[in-house]
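subagent[fold] <- orchestrator: predict structure for attached chain, return tokens only, no commentary.
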Amino acid sequence: MDAMDAVDAGVRPRVVLGVSGGIAAYKACELLRRLTESGHDVQVVPTASALNFVGAATWSALSGHPVSTEVWNDVHDVPHVRIGQHADLVVVAPATADLLAKAAHGLADDLLTNTLLTARCPVVFAPAMHTEMWEHPATQENVATLRRRGAVVIEPAVGRLTGVDTGKGRLPEPGEIFEVCRRVLARGAAAPDLTGRHVVVSAGGTREPLDPVRFLGNRSSGKQGYALARTAAARGARVTLVAANASLPDPAGVDVVHVGTAVQLREAVLKAAADADAVVMAAAVADFRPAEYASGKIKKKDGIEAPTVSLVRNPDILAEISADRARPGQVIVGFAAETDDVLANGRDKLRRKGCDLLVVNEVGERRTFGAEENEAVVLAADGAETLVPHGPKEALADTVWDLVVPRLG
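subagent[fold] -> orchestrator:
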């Protein structure tokens, strides 16, 4: 039984929420609320510095457990050993540069760092600090060390920091950190098998402008691509998400590139794929675009027939990156949205595109697009076929990564 099955069975998975001393500590209150309201038993272990931002009374009231920073409190219970030993997950949010350094070097001068040394469960770090601190070689080496040991270190978000500064180092939104924790818990003791890998995922649907107010588009919501990005991040990957017109929050730990048209998506994918181990093309890319763009709104006029819209072909991005791979051993995954003869059309597309895997699903006005669930058959170039039954889009995403991992060079 994994941790998420335990929730369904009425057993409360035990989560340790470590909080280190950064201004983003207040955001951990929202993460704590999401964890407790979803059925997790949460023990908050702050550092002494963290209590300068959020007091112990707040953590105790929200978690239902007493809070301490010291190994000397309740010594008879040996908290510096027991808390980590009994946890199903340890998540540190925010994780400062100081905390990451201590964790990487095995220092244990308070209850949180002792807990990190004794934990044998999955560990997630959500860093938050100024850009210069995140980019410093010392911090990057500490992050690499933690990832090499199996910890999931989420990439910080880009945005407003303290003061007037803006850049990479912002704590991801608590709801998105929660999603990473949920996926890590769902995988249980499974190792983060994409650690050290860079994967590129495209998501959403491209829009091809006709005039300043109209476009040719499709019904794709981007939810499947975002699920692929989230699950890859939870499995330790560095993820670049090329998102076309998706109205979804940026996943935690994911570098997001927002685009609009098929040409823009091609440019972004080719750039990101240059050092990628795998590229998953989940976006619904328009096959055609208007041959001409009207600089003013096209208006209907009495006595004049509707104008004819001429179309030209968009670049075939999947076929291009499959034929000209940016690096040896790069794994390419495509998606095929079909309305009829689903498998036959899918097998034909797999041959034409030259990718390693093709996720084939049936779509329609009330099927797949915008839904939280999906079902598909994953076709492989070697002839294998994997059926993914109807279920959450995250389940399909995990199946895709399960098939990608053994194919990585």
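orchestrator: received. Logging for downstream: The radius of gyration is 24 Å. The longest helix spans residues 174-187.
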